[in-house]
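Justification of resources, computational component.

The compute hours requested in this renewal are based largely on the per-chain cost of generating structure records like the one below. Each record pairs the submitted sequence with a full structure-token output. That output is archived, and it is also reused by downstream analysis tasks.
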Amino acid sequence: MATALLAGAFALATQRMVAESPFLRSLMYLWLAQTLFLVLNAAVRLAL
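The structure output for this chain reads:
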């Protein structure tokens, strides 16, 4: 859960820089999707 919160904080902190570049925006979305997938996967494994 902490990883997802840190990912969200990082995304908000780098929002200005990422908004200028479509490539960086795509990488940020990919990274956030990966983090969400990992958190959901961990929740399923722990039967939360």
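The CA atoms of residues 4 and 48 lie 16 Å apart. DSSP finds three helices and no strands in the chain.
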